[in-house]
Amino acid sequence: MSSFLNLCSCEFTKIRKKKSTKIMMIILVLSVFVAVLLSILTKEIYNVSETYYSNADYKTMEKTEMEALKAELENYESSLDVSSKNTIKAKIDTYQMAIDYDINIYNNYWKNNVLMNDILISKVQYYDYKSIEDEELANIEDQNINKKLELIKNDDFDGYMNTQKDILKANYEANLMSKEEYDIATNILDIRTKYKIGKEYNPEDSWKETIIEEIEVLSNNIRYGVDTVTQKALSEKDVEKAKDSIKMNEYRLEHNMPPYATATTIGNTRKIFDYVVGGTTLLALSVMIIIIAGSSISSEISKGTIKFWSFTPNKRWKVLLSKLVVTVIILILASVVMSIISTIVGNVFFGSENAQGYIYVKNGAVHEINYLAYIIIYNLLSSIEVFMFLLFAMMLSTVTRNTAISVGVSIATYLGGSTIMSIVNSLVNSEWVKFIPSNNLSIAERVFSNDITYSASTVLEPLANNSSVSFSLILLGVCALIMIVTMFDSYRKRDII
User: Under a CB-based contact definition with an 8 Å cutoff, are residues 245 and 210 in contact?
Assistant: First the structure.
């Protein structure tokens, strides 16, 4: 045992002293700061349109559109029918109200909805009734408009929500909607009221609108037993997944925890950083480990230092095992250390208050894993992919005894494998695809699948391998065993002198 530990210590020292290892360690740390820049850039690019409409001179834009409507009414009045004239008049009045009450109609919040939906419709009806000289109905519409304007003047968001509930109740009592429809719609309004969703416009909170829309869609999916988007019947497992997604979405709203991605939005900059840094550090770590593993045997053979081991009492399998064990230990330690470093850097640049753990549903209740524990476990699971390429590179190094081939082929396979498999999964719908090793490497993404919402997972599903985690682990275990047997057999039998 002591001789094996000495072999491991010697191997670790050799790896540590290599210039390539030191360079890759520096690159590994720098990858965290690259992730910071990429995260900020990604969020800025995503927010370009929303920031434009938030910061633009919307009053001037509203005046321009209103003047265009006035010109249309004036120039084409003789060719327009009564209905078209009334619609244009109603739009002109609505734009004027937006200007008078300082409402940005280009942003999605409750005042915009009241003005451009409720009041605009009432205005059109008001002019229609005026055209047929029905003063009674015209006055009723005018009163409705004034009531809505009063809500806007008083900035009464809760009052608007209560008005919407009263409309739902009236429709339900008039048998215009079922009890299930009424309950779902009322629940959505309750959630909006509780978390003030739509009260003010904030680009950072755009995910909340998407989340609440998803809750409504999922509720209707469960009600009908059919996915209302794909029109596919839901299995019992699909229904449970939908119910769990609703619970997690409500938990996100309650604790202000944006997901990494929905079908149409992305999370805050910290959440983007958590995902980007996982990719950049994994890439740097993979290249470093492949270089270490791919040169472990072949470089010693080319330099002639491998001959030293033939003059010691250590058996060949022990020498190779020490190299394998040390490389695996470096992989594990680097994964844990980089998890801690990325957490510290993320806290410094984006604030520790924005660091959020992983949520999941168990026994009908939502649970949360501590942020640091989640990041460490996620990165360790991601290291399974690196471990497979570690074995692949070391096997090639042992068999070919050529560092360029073992490192080059391994890196090329690592970089191109995921892209190729995404294309294959989107084009091929056959069982044999799931038996391809490269299609079973993304263990972490499938274990921790709740960082994207139900709608986003539905969009990405055609590009992913849907086999179970246990199946992937068994398949990868078989592949690992084959590579280990191959490298040990080749190293044991072939001449090294």
Answer: no
Is there a contact between 399 and 487 (Cβ–Cβ < 8 Å)?
yes
Q: Are the C-beta atoms of residues 258 and 252 closer than 8 Å to each other?
A: yes
* Four-point Cα dihedral 74, 78, 83, 86, nearest 10: 20
Its sign, for the CA torsion 103, 108, 111, 114, is positive
The total of other beta-carbon atoms located within 10 Å of residue 81's CB is 8
**Closest-CA residue to 392 (of 305, 479, 300, 273):** 479
293: closest CA among 475, 495, 20, 492?
20
Helices (H), 116-195: 120-131, 135-153, 157-173, 179-195
Tokens of residue 299, six digits:
């470089």
| β-sheet bridge partners, residue 366 | 361
**Which tokens sit at 182?**
């009424």
80-88 average pLDDT score: 90
pTM of the model: 0.80
How far does CA 256 lie from the centroid of its chain? 16
Helix (H) / strand (E) element for 359: namely strand 358-362
Q: Which of 32-36, 278-282, 401-405, 446-450 has the lowest mean pLDDT?
A: 446-450
DSSP element (H, E) containing 432: none
pLDDT digits (tens, 9 = 90+) for 458-483: 554 544 556 788 888 999 999 999 99
Number of other residues whose CB lies within 10 A of the CB of residue 24: 20
Q: Which amino acid is at 257?
A: M
What DSSP string describes 217-240? HHHHHHHHTB-TTT-PBPPHHHHH
CA dihedral 337, 341, 343, 348 (to 10 degrees): 170
